[in-house]
TrEMBL record:
Species this protein is from: Thalassospira indica
Source taxon at top rank: Bacteria
Keyword DNA-binding in annotation: yes
Residue ranges of every copy of the HTH tetR-type domain listed in the record: 11-71
InterPro entries xrefs: Homeodomain-like_sf, HTH-type_TetR-like_transc_reg, HTH_TetR, Rv0078-like_C
Protein name: TetR/AcrR family transcriptional regulator
Amino acid sequence: MTAKTRAEKMEETRIKLIKAGRKAFAEKGYAEASMDELTASAGLTRGALYHNFGDKRGLLAAVVDEIDSAMAQQAKDAGDAAGGGWNGLMAEGRTYIELALDPEIQRIVLRDGPAFLGDPSQWPSQNRCLQATIATLTELADQGAIKPVDIEALARLLNGVALNAALWVAASDDPKDTLGKAIAAFECLAAGVLVTPNAN
């Protein structure tokens, strides 16, 4: 019983820190966010942050994982709503790129994330997206809907195009204008793998 209570308290502390970190990183950016202010806003000590995440960078990684995972879920929901298959895959890509218009996502995931955590393709959340894309492409290949090409290579490149399109939108002086160009280019490039233009 005591172990469970301790585990629950630890999880509660972790959730508080992620929430406080998310707010601070969104408002001030990673570099300007103060660990003392951040932990105080959560009613915790800097020691709690070190214990749970190692350091501020570890907290950023947890916050990015939470947001990027939510982005992936929104994209998956859009894909499911589009009926899955190729149309679903394109809906997922479009949705992920569109989310780059969100100021919190722009700052935390698409600017500070790569700047302080390195290559996004190495993030756990991006790897989960990759596995999902591989699964969809494998089904499409089995149906003969896409050209014979290495599935992992194709999945990595398609996901990379969507991610880089989102990064471009986030860094653009006119994100809304850039969004249309990015989505059109993403769909044009992706369509090259189809056996027929209207494959589903």
